[in-house]
Design brief:
The complex is a heterodimer of chains A (about 325) and B (about 350).
Chain A: E1 13-14, E2 16-17, H1 21-37, H2 43-56, E3 58-60, E4 63-67, H3 71-96, H4 101-125, E5 127-129, E6 132-136, H5 140-156, H6 162-175, E7 177-179, E8 182-186, H7 194-207, H8 212-225, E9 227-229, E10 232-236, H9 240-256, H10 262-275, E11 277-280, H11 302-305
Antiparallel strand pairs in A: 1-11, 2-3, 3-4, 4-5, 5-6, 6-7, 7-8, 8-9, 9-10, 10-11
Helix pairs in contact in A: 1-2, 2-3, 3-4, 4-5, 5-6, 7-8, 8-9, 9-10
Chain B: E1 2-9, E2 16-24, E3 27-32, E4 35-41, E5 45-49, E6 57-61, E7 64-71, H1 73-82, H2 86-126, H3 129-142, E8 149-150, H4 153-166, E9 175-179, E10 186-189, E11 193-197, H5 198-203, H6 207-222, H7 225-243, H8 248-283, H9 289-301, H10 320-330, H11 342-349, H12 353-357
Parallel strand pairs in B: 9-11
Antiparallel strand pairs in B: 1-2, 1-7, 2-3, 3-4, 5-6, 6-7, 8-9, 10-11
The chains are: A alpha+beta (about 325), B alpha+beta (about 350).
Chain lengths: ~325, ~350
C-alpha cells in the first residue's frame, strides 16, 4: 500500500532538532586534532562529518534532513581554488607595497561574494530530504554583481538602503532555491523594513548597537514569513531580545572556554533557529520530484580558503 | 528471511511507501502489495544514520545513491546480522586511510619546512632593486622612522666616512642613517637601508663599536637577510592560511610551529651576519672587539639575552655569550689605527642634536 508521509500534515508542524552535543564534540575534536596533525588535509573530511551529523539532527515533517557531501568533493574544490588564491595573494602582496593598496579591497570583496554564494550552492545541493536534493541555481557572478551594486548604493546613501539590500539579496537567493524541481518563492517588498531599520539605526547610537538586534530579528522574521514552498509558509518567532541573548551568551561561551565551547555554540544556534521556525500549511510530497539538474562534482574551494562561514551547515 | 517492514524512498518523489524487507541470497529485497519494489546487493548497503531504540535510522545503497530506507531498530538489528562484515571492513579501510594521510602529511611537512627557506634566496634574486627599495621605505614608514632621521651635516660626514671605510665597494649599495629612537637597536631593511637608533649610539664609547654594528648590519644587507626573512614569513603564512584557513585553533598551532622555524632561520642569519661583519672589519683593518663591547653592553641591559639555556630556541638571535665567544676567537692583540678622529666621533655622537632641537 502506497502511503505518503508528508501529505496532509497538521498545520504549524515544527522543524525539530534532536541535539547530540556529545557526538558533536567528538566529531569536532577529531576534526581539530586530525586537521592539525595532517596539516589541514583531514579538515575536508572533518568538516563533512560535522555537517553530516548536524544535518541528521534536523527533521522536517518527521523526516530527517541528510547531508550527502563528501570530504573528497571539498578537497578537490579546494585544489581548484588554489591557483586563484595564489594569484590573489601575490596581487595583494605586490599592491600592498604601492599606493594602490586601496584598490585591493574591490576585487577582494567581489571574490568574497562569489565564494559565499558558490558555497551556498554547494551546501544546498548536498542537502536531501526524503531522498530529494536541494538546489540553488543562479550565477555566483550575478550574485556578486548584485551585492556590489547594492553595497555601492548603501555607501552613497550612508546606509539608509541597507534594509532594501538585505531583502533584495534574500529575494535573489530564494528565487534560485528549490527542493527537487519545486521552487521556493519570496513575496516580500524591499521597503518593508525601512522604518525598523531607520529607528533601530538611530537608537543604535544610544544603545551601543544593541537595538540592531531588533532589526536583525525583524529581518529574519520577514524573510521567513514571506517565503513559501508549495502551499506551506514559514513562520518565525525570533525576537530581538532572544537574538541578543543568543549572540551575547554565545560570545561569552567562546571567550570563557577559549574557543573550546564552539560545539556548544553551534548546538545552541541550531536549536534556536529550529525552535523559532515553524511550518504552516500542507505539503504534497508526490509533487516534489527529483531535479534533473546534476549537482557540481566538487565542493566549495575559495570559501574554505578565505575563512568564510556563510551557511548554517 | 523476513526482516519486517520499513519505509522506502525511491529518490524520484518526496514520498515513501511501506515495504516488507526480505534477505534473498546476496540481496535485500523490498516488496509491497504490487510485488518487488527494489533489490539492493547486500554489500552495497551503507548506514546513513544508525537507528536507536526510540529513533528510526536510514540506510542507502551505493548502487542506487538517491534511494533510502527508513527502518526501526529491530529491523536494523536483523538486517545487520545478514550484512557482510561492513563495520570491520570500514575500520580497516579507514585505518589505512588515516595512516596514509599521516604519511603524506609528514612528507608534505618535511617538504615545506625544507623548501621554503631554500627557495627564498633564489626568489630574492629575482626581485628588482626598485621594489626592494620600496619595501625598505615602506618598512621605514611602518616603523614611523622617516620623520626622525638625524641629519646633522658634520655627523653625517663622519658617518659616511665610517661607512666608506668599512664597505668601500658594496655589492648592494647601502643607505645608512641614524634615527632618533628610544630603542637600543640597529636594523637592516630591504633595499640596502640600515637604521641605527640614537639610543644605541648613545651607549657607545668608541667608533669601533659602531663600526662593529655597521659591519654586522652590512652582512644582513649583502646576504639579503631581511628580504629573505620577509619571504620566508610570507611563505609560511601563505601555507598556513591556505591549508588551515577556517580552523582557527589548528591555524594557531601551526603558526606557532612556523614561528619557531622562522626563529631558527633568523638565528642562522644573525650568526652569518656576525661572520660576514668580522670579515669586513678584518679587511678594513678595524678592531673587531668593538662589536664584542656592544654585545657585552647589550647583555648588561637585558641579562636574559645571554641565556643559552632551554629558552634560547625562542630567540631571534643566537645567545650573546656565544657571539662574544666567537668574536674573541677572531680577535688578536694586534693594534689597529683609529678609524675616526675624536672630533669626528663627537660629531657623529651629536648627529641627532639638531633634530631634537627642532
Amino acid at each position: 500500500m502506497d502511503s505518503s508521509v508528508v501529505e496532509q500534515k497538521v498545520a504549524k508542524t515544527q522543524i525539530k532538532f534532536r541535539s547530540d552535543l556529545g557526538a558533536l564534540y567528538g566529531y569536532w575534536l577529531l576534526h581539530i586534532c586530525l586537521s592539525f596533525f595532517t596539516l589541514g588535509i583531514y579538515s575536508f573530511w572533518g568538516r563533512t562529518n560535522v555537517r553530516r551529523h548536524l544535518a541528521q539532527c534536523i527533521s522536517v515533517f518527521n523526516e530527517r534532513v541528510e547531508y550527502i557531501g563528501t570530504g573528497k568533493e571539498l578537497f578537490f574544490g579546494f585544489l581548484k581554488a588554489i591557483p586563484l588564491f595564489i594569484l590573489g595573494y601575490i596581487l595583494l602582496f605586490v599592491l600592498s607595497l604601492t599606493p594602490l593598496i586601496a584598490l585591493v579591497f574591490i576585487p577582494a570583496i567581489y571574490i568574497y561574494w562569489i565564494a559565499s554564494y558558490g558555497s551556498m550552492k554547494y551546501r544546498f545541493s548536498r542537502l536531501t530530504w526524503c531522498g530529494i536534493r536541494g538546489h540553488l541555481s543562479g550565477s555566483s557572478f550575478t550574485y556578486a554583481n548584485l551585492s556590489f551594486w547594492r553595497a555601492f548604493l548603501d555607501v552613497i546613501t550612508f546606509g539608509i538602503l541597507i534594509s532594501h539590500t538585505d531583502i533584495e539579496k534574500w529575494r535573489f537567493t530564494i528565487k534560485h532555491s528549490a527542493i527537487g524541481d519545486t521552487k521556493l518563492k519570496f513575496h516580500g517588498e524591499n521597503d518593508a523594513l525601512f522604518g525598523t531599520h531607520i529607528i533601530t539605526g538611530i537608537l543604535a547610537i544610544f544603545t551601543l548597537g544593541i537595538s540592531r538586534f531588533w532589526y536583525m530579528a525583524a529581518l529574519k522574521r520577514y524573510q521567513l514569513e514571506h517565503t513559501t514552498f508549495q502551499n506551506i509558509q514559514l513562520k518565525s518567532t525570533i525576537t530581538g531580545g532572544s537574538l541578543w541573548w543568543l549572540m551575547t551568551s554565545n560570545l561569552c561561551i567562546l571567550i570563557f572556554t577559549l574557543g573550546l565551547g564552539r560545539p556548544i555554540v553551534i548546538n545552541r544556534n541550531f536549536r534556536f533557529y529550529t525552535e523559532h521556525t515553524h511550518i504552516v500549511g500542507e505539503l504534497d510530497g508526490s509533487k516534489i520530484l527529483q531535479s534533473k539538474e546534476l549537482p557540481s562534482k566538487t565542493g566549495e574551494g575559495l570559501e574554505s580558503i578565505l575563512d568564510l562561514d556563510t551557511g548554517i551547515l | 528471511m523476513n526482516l519486517g517492514t520499513a519505509r522506502y524512498f525511491d529518490g524520484k518523489q518526496a514520498v515513501s511507501r511501506e515495504v516488507t524487507l526480505f534477505v534473498l541470497g546476496e540481496k535485500l529485497e523490498g516488496k509491497d502489495d504490487s510485488g518487488s519494489v527494489f533489490q539492493w546487493p547486500l554489500n552495497s548497503i551503507r548506514v546513513k544514520h544508525r537507528p536507536k531504540q526510540d529513533e528510526s535510522g536510514l540506510i542507502s545503497s551505493l548502487q542506487y545513491p538517491n534511494t533510502r530506507l527508513s527502518l526501526n531498530y529491530a529491523v536494523f538489528q536483523k538486517l545487520n546480522v545478514a550484512l557482510p562484515n561492513n563495520s570491520f571492513r570500514s575500520f580497516t579501510s579507514s585505518t589505512v586511510a588515516i595512516f596514509s594521510i599521516v604519511l603524506v602529511t609528514l612528507l608534505i611537512v618535511g617538504a615545506l619546512v625544507w623548501s621554503v627557506p631554500r627557495f627564498t634566496p633564489s626568489i630574492v634574486d629575482w626581485i628588482p632593486d626598485q621594489i626592494r627599495k620600496n619595501i625598505g621605505e615602506h618598512a621605514l614608514a611602518e616603523f614611523e622612522l622617516q620623520d626622525h632621521r638625524c641629519d646633522h651635516p658634520k655627523g653625517m660626514k663622519a658617518l659616511n666616512k665610517l661607512v666608506q671605510k668599512i664597505l668601500p665597494n658594496p655589492k648592494i649599495p647601502v643607505s645608512v642613517n641614524v634615527y632618533s629612537s628610544v630603542y637600543v637597536n640597529a636594523i637592516a631593511l630591504p633595499g640596502g637601508h640600515v637604521a641605527i637608533f640614537s639610543e644605541l649610539l648613545d651607549t657607545m664609547k668608541h667608533p669601533d663599536e659602531l663600526a662593529g654594528v655597521l659591519a654586522h648590519e652590512f652582512g644582513h644587507v649583502q646576504n639579503n637577510d631581511s628580504l629573505d626573512a620577509l619571504l620566508v614569513h610570507f611563505g609560511y603564512s601563505f601555507i598556513t592560511e591556505v591549508i588551515l584557513g577556517d580552523i582557527e585553533e589548528a591555524e594557531l598551532l601551526l603558526s606557532l610551529s612556523n614561528h619557531l622555524i622562522e626563529l631558527k632561520h633568523s638565528r642562522e642569519a644573525e650568526a652569518n651576519a656576525d661572520v660576514y661583519g668580522l670579515q669586513l672589519l678584518e679587511k678594513a683593518n678595524i678592531n673587531p672587539n668593538g662589536l664584542q663591547t656592544v654585545f657585552k653592553h647589550l647583555k648588561t641591559l637585558e641579562p636574559s639575552e645571554g641565556d643559552d639555556g632551554w629558552t634560547s630556541f625562542l630567540s631571534t638571535h643566537p645567545p650573546i655569550d656565544a657571539r662574544i665567544h666567537n668574536i674573541s676567537k677572531e680577535s688578536s692583540k694586534k693594534r689597529y689605527p683609529a678609524i675616526l678622529s675624536k672630533r669626528e666621533w663627537k660629531d657623529l655622537k651629536n648627529i641627532c642634536l639638531i633634530h631634537e632641537d627642532k
